[in-house]
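Re: How this chain folds, sequence and tokenised backbone to follow
How to read it: Take the token row as a discrete description of the fold.
Start of record: The labelled sequence and token lines come straight after this line.
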Amino acid sequence: MLKADVVETVAKEAHLTKKAAREAVDSTLENIIGALRKGEKVVLSGFGTFVIRGRKARAGRNPKTGQTIQLPSMNTIGFIASKGIKKTVRK
């Protein structure tokens, strides 16, 4: 499912124009990104939780040359699905 599909579905189910639905979806995603940028976790009840996870610096390899390189520490985004979503997908 693409973002355009989500916008179309929101427009139909919420009885909105596609423009209004696109603005709602964009605003929601921007707010999630903004909270993650601040280091906050985002909890969407019944859906899941977005969290920031730290990754330690480590040695890696350049796949082209095989040379060992040092990869810096960085933050990554993690998602923990809710129990309800997990149950639905497993069936």
